[in-house]
Structures are given as C-alpha cells and as structure tokens.
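As described in the Methods, two query proteins were run sequentially through the folding procedure within a single session, without resetting any intermediate state between them. The first query and its resulting structure tokens are shown here.
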Amino acid sequence: MENWLIKQSELVPYRTALVYEGKTWNFKQLKVVVHKTAGKLAKFAGRLGKRVAVIAGNTPASYFMVLALQQLGVQPVLLNCRLAFSEVERQREDADVSVVFVDDVLKKSFGGYVKKNAHYYLISELDAILPKEPSIIQSFKDEEVASVMYTSGTTGQPHGVLQTFRNHFFSAVGSAFNLGLNPNDQWLCAVPIFHISGLSIMMRSLIYGTSVVLVPHFDPVKITQILVSSPVSLMSVVPVMLKQLLNLYPSEGYNSFFRAFLLGGAPIDAVTLDRCKERGINVIQSYGLTETCSQIVALNFADAPSKIGSVGKPLFPVQVRIASKTGEIEVKAPNVVQGYLNDQVSFDDKLTQDGWFRTGDLGQFDDEGFLFIKGRKDEMFISGGENVFPNEIEAVYVKAAGIKGIAVIGIPDKVWGQVPYAFVEPETDFELDDAMLKLYGKKHLAHYKVPQKFIRVDQLPRTANGKLKHAEIRKNFLKNNNW
C-alpha cells in the first residue's frame, strides 16, 4: 500500500494533521518535518540497523521520530518510559537495538544513562545535524513490521509484538466502520504513544487523513478545558481517566463536535457508566490487545445505552468465539499479529489448531451477541470447587463508599484450596473496616467470593493503560506475606 504520510500530504495537504499546545501542522508540513528528521538520521546510517528504539513522551519530537523511522523502513521499538532502566535494557537487548532515542522531556529519568551509555541519545541531539536527502520508502508492504511494542507483562515477561502495516490498517478499518468517519474529526490523545492505544491514534490519523490533538500527559483540568473550547470529537480513555473527567464535567457540557469517549484498558463499573448516561455522554466501551493493534470488539452509539457493561460486538472484519471448555476468548482477524520477536514458539502456543488466537481473557456472549468480559484466565482461581473471577468481585466493591480502587487475588488455603484477599486503595482518610466490608460483600456476592481479608495499599500497581497487575500483587504478597 502507498506510504500513508506521503499519500495524505498529496490528498489533503492543508488539512490539520497534528495539534500540540497551540502549535499546528497540516499534512504537508508534517511530511516536511518528518522527512527532515529522517534526513538527520543519516548520521546514524550503518548504526540504525533493522530496529531503533524510542523512549517516547507525548511530544511532537517523539511523534516525528516514530514516523521518520517508518519512512526509512526502520522498525520503531516503542519502550515504556515508566520502566526501570534494567527493564528497558532487557528489552533493548532482546530487540537487538543499537540506537535508542530518548525524548528530552524524559531527561530527568534517563539523562544519566544517555551520558554513560553509547546506545542512548536525546532526540534533541539531532538539532545540530544538517539533514541529508533521505531514502524514503514509497510504499509499505503489507507484512512489513510497522512497530514493535512490548506487552504490558501483567502475568510474566513481556513479549515484543510485531505489528505490521496490514495489522494497523485493518484495525483502523474496523474502528471507522463502528464509529463512522468524519474528515473533520479530531482525536484527543492523552494516552501514551508508546502504548497501542496511543500509537493506534497516530496510525489512524495517517490512514484516515484526520487530526490528532496531542497532549503531554493526562491532566483532567486541562483536558476538560480542551474538550469545552476545542473542536475535539473523540478521545480515548481508561476508567480512571473517565472518572476524573466526570468529576469536572462542566454544566455547559463539551464542545458541539464531541462525539464520544472510547473506553478501553480495563472494565468499568456500571455506576460510572450510569453517570455518563445521565449527562448524555457517549461512552463506547471496547476490547483489544497489543497483539490485535488496538480494539477488536466495541459498542456502537446505538447500543451503548442499553448494553452497559458489555464491550460490544466484534468489529468488521473480526471473528470472535468462546472456547467451549475453558470460556476463553479466541479471535481471528487481519489485525491479529503473526508473532513475537525472538519467541515465535510462545506466540504459536497461543494459537488453536485451526489458527485462532487465544487471548487469555474469559468472556461470554449474551443472547444478542454482545460480549461481556469476565476476567483473565490466569487470574481466575478455584475456592472450594467454585470458579472465582476477581473482576466480578472488584466490580462489586468499587461501588462501595470509600474505595478508590481494589484488586482481588487468590491466596492458598489449606481448607478451600484458595480464598480471595482484597488489596484496597481507599479514598483519602477512609478507614478500612473488615467487618463492614465483609457484610457489604455478603449482600452482593456468594459467600465464597467475599474476601477473607482487606489489605490497605497506598497505590495499586497498574500497567500504562490502567490494567491492574494482579501477578505483581500476588508475587509481593506471597514473598513477604504482607504488603
């Protein structure tokens, strides 16, 4: 397929492509600055290799760098800036990367390593380089790797996911068929571009020829101001972001162009969705993975009010089924990747004999074909012969007064095999009362689902897209027998 950036610069050269803190680039200007960045990378010719890593911030510099690498036919490896340096190094070595570009906004965290390590460079070091005429890829081959992104590692060592141009294209197609496509759409990107939720917004912009409003980080006050005063039509959020925005929802509402929040990353409670419904805010729940290049299942505008709690129906052209014996969600689609970097065996182990990808998530369809997520297969545990899904317990307790966040895991028990323990992130100054919380649970849950113990934590560990790290919680608890 044709090079997306070049194509849009020819089709809609003067349409806005990127907005960042008051500065705007149209597609013609975006192509110029990206190709200029590609020309500056000529200094590293011979060192760039097949892949280059980017420790990206939500800034134009990182945005341009990712696109410039694609223009050169170099695979950008998106590394999570929230990782410890030792974790970053493991992924750099796994990806066989010789050059790592660090966004200057992350200088405080990584500046010391840039000085000491020959592999690391600040993006600003390109400023003093005179660009050469770059050798730009004129067309993208469908199966060429467009990006490498490591899984969040909620249950083990992260895998480098090989996302192709074809994968990104069909992910964008499915989203457009579900949400509709307006050439004047502006998608607000407050999620990290090193994560698939952020990168997919960038890729959709190039495929659709629509605008991205990029913000450096999620600030609910600033975001609310943008949603009120700017013609933003869509925004991707995770549950914690949506809740904070609801607390600041203005009486006059958002701008007249605003269409919906696309909600992903983790399940959301019905109370929060009811609050959105009362305010007339469209929330499109969705479900996807790094291995599917973003969403594969989503609600549409018409079904959203009547199917609260569901993530929707499979998008076009995605097939989803539920394994009869395990209840695991399995998927087949052109946006499902074909492998993991340096670990094809682990990827192949996730495929069924007839080629469907096993997601590791448990779910069920209702009578009308809407999918409901029950939780992770590896998080489910058995207590006294009964299957217990932490997600179900968490959804009940997050409605209780004083609870900001909660994570439930199974703890070994001599009598029942495993019993649920809850780790609670309370609201400010809220005192946990085990007896009251157990009584609350008994009113809403079967007795074997009520946590045996409630442990206060200052902050629950989460991935970049808001998913609870149950495995990390379990590991720390079993290691120390306390928090």
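Immediately afterward, the second query was submitted; its sequence and tokens are:
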Amino acid sequence: MEGLDTGNTAWMLASTALVLFMTPGLALFYGGMVRSKSVLNMMMMSLSAMGLIGVLWVLYGYSIAFGNDVGAGLLGNPFEAWGLKGLFVGSYTGDSVSYVLSADIPALVFVAFQATFAIITVALISGAVADRMKFGAWLLFAGLWATIVYFPVAHWVFAFSNDDAGVVGGWIANDLAAIDFAGGTAVHINAGVAALALAIVLGKRKGWPREPMRPHNLTLVMLGAGILWFGWFGFNAGSALGANGTAAFAMVNTIVATCAAMLGWLATERIRDGKATSLGAASGIVAGLVAITPSCASISPMGAILLGAIAGVVCALAVGLKFRFGYDDSLDVVGVHLVGGILGTVLIGFLADPGSPAGVAGLFYGGGVDQLWRQVVGALAVLLYSGILTFVIALIVKAIFGGKIRVSDEDEATGIDESEHAETAYDFSSHRGLAGVAGTPRPDAATASAQSVVAGKEG
C-alpha cells in the first residue's frame, strides 16, 4: 500500500489493544468498589458495552462520527461508511486499495482505535447506577445513548476537516478550534454528565446514604486502576496517530500528571480525614488520567504537574457533592469524570504552552483569553447536549420498561447478581462439609478422638 508507514501502523495497533484493555480494567475498578452481591452485574455492564457498542460502531457509529458532515458540523453521514463500506479491500465500492487515514495508517486501524473510545465512554456511565439498574434496561439505554449522544459528539470533537479530500468535520474541532487531544469533552464530560442524568432518573439505592456501602474488594480496585493507567498510554499517546514526538510528549504528561493527582488526592484525604487510603490512591490515579486527557499535547510537563495536583485535590473534594445535593452517583463518576474532564478542558485556556505540539498560548503564556473562551464553550456545549438528551433517553427507556428500569426492593436487598444473572461472584459452599467429599483428607485418629471427647462433654 503506497504511503503506508509500518512503524506508525504497529504503534496504532498496539494503542488500540491498550485502550480496549482499559474496559476490563474499568470493570475490575468498578467491580471492586461495589458490594460483593453486585460485583458481577457491575462488571457485566462494562463488558456488555464492548459487545453492543462494537457492533453499532461498525454498522453506523463510525460513519456518524467520521463521515463527511451533513450539516453545520453536527453530524457525519451515517450511510457513507455503513458497515465500513469503502474502507477495505474488496469493499462495496470496488476499490482495490484500502483507504489510508492520516496519510500513513490503514483506515481500519483508525476505525478500531476509535471504536475502543466509544466502548469505554459508554462503560464509564455504568458506575453511577451500580446495584440497582435492570440489565436489559442498561443495554437499551447504552445503545440509544451511543447512537444519539456519543457518535454525534465524537464527530464534533474528533472529526477534522480535510480540504484536499473535500471532507468537512465537526464544529468544535474546526470552527470553534477548542483543544481536546484525546477526549476530555467527548469522553469524560460526556459520560460524567450522562451518569448524573441517569442516576437522577433511576433514583437512589435503598438505604443510601444512611447505610454504609463500602467497597468489597480494594485489591480489585487497585488492580483496575493500574490497568487503566497502563491502557491510558494508548488512549493519550495513541491519539498522536503515530510513533512520533507528539506521542512521546503526551506519554510523559500522562505519567507526571497522574502521579501529581494521586499525591494531591492522598494529601487531601490526610488533611481532611487523618488517613490516606488505597481507594484514594486509585481514585487519584483516575482523576489525573481524566484531567490530562484533553491537554496532554498542549501543556508542558510542569503544567501537567500543576494540572494533576489541582485535579487530585478538586476531585477528592467533588465526590462529596452527591451528599450535599442528594443524587446517588454510586461510584463517583460525576466527581471524577465530569469534574476532572471540565478541569482538564478549561485549564488548557490558562496553561497551554506555545512550545508544546499544539503550539497554542494560554492566558499564563501571553495568549489572552482567546483559547480560554473556546475551551469553555466546547465544555459547556457537550455538557448541555449530553445532559439534556441523556435525561430524555433515560425517560424513554423507563417508559418502554413500564416505568420499571430498576430491580425490585427485594432483589436489590438480595443482590442484583442473583436477580439479573442467576450467579454469585463468590461461592462459599465449597468451604463447608469437605470431610465427606471424595479426595478430601479426613481427620486423623487423634483429632477424631479429641472431637468425640469434646462432643461428649457438651452433651
């Protein structure tokens, strides 16, 4: 294939795998944070997003997000690449050579890379509705939300115009010229405000906030956070679309901002509560990753440290907003992803370094408020569009399910794993009555005799 760069292609293939791996990492992160009777359902909500959104992306999602614009930068043509026609050898258009996107990687590599973004964005929302949403209702909501909200917003933010090819992209990327390198608006603000709207429609968990609902397995939480950090290098550095200096710049910023955010969150906990926790460390990691996502190619490493520290502190404080305002965001999607996404997007307007790959000067570098207002408008546009439409979609799903999109009170008390999946995560029956099981050692004679004596005394 003429113009193919195998090095860039290899990096993008690896980045795609890294980002896809983030969704199982998110499943572990979320799964450890819920109670043991809900862990399978929580993980299934993430994993089911992989299956559902992956299929929708190939059918029409990619075309809506990256097809040629059909009006005012709001929507790509859903039929232009329906079923990915025209993007591979032997395609419906009869082309003999695969398209090449960004000059030197196959189109299908970019298709796969962006599919992983769509998948994890939907999965992020599920953390706000843990313990109580019917699985069928979740799947219907996820499909509608991806179609009506994520695919168009991805077009706004990620679809850049190409005058030479006659391609017109989305309005935020091209007309507004707001900077969002890897998805602070399209992914994190989008998912965060959607999580808030869905949680409000769904209602609070029974007993919240009176009853403690502690994470059942912090080991899983920390493992999930580590996998997310690992996969996020594909998320951010992969968004350079090549093995180049911009990818290296984004990778360094992704490391250092996350480190600073973890320290910021732990310091906040230590000052406020007297203890620094493992849950705080894991949450700080995610907050830093969220905040650096839009800005990893536009601020300096020193700016990344400052941004990360701010995100760690602010997000640690923001998770308490649900108690003040009374919305039950089970796993703090709002406090981490919505707040972190807004911080990372807006602070570009202050911290953008003209020496960075983006080449834009923020307010602190003499650029005035020109970039700042663009960042604010982009963030607000996604927040309002996603928040309003998510609320409407949630009400539609609720009506389709006869007003019952959450499990019954009895099923919620028993555990959503059993009611929705007929399974439990942990089987303790194997620890009982093992002496009569074939192959299980029986007590020796001395132990048996001692047990008889004790039994006789008790009798």
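The chain is about 60% helix and 0% strand. We note this only descriptively and draw no conclusion about the first query from it.
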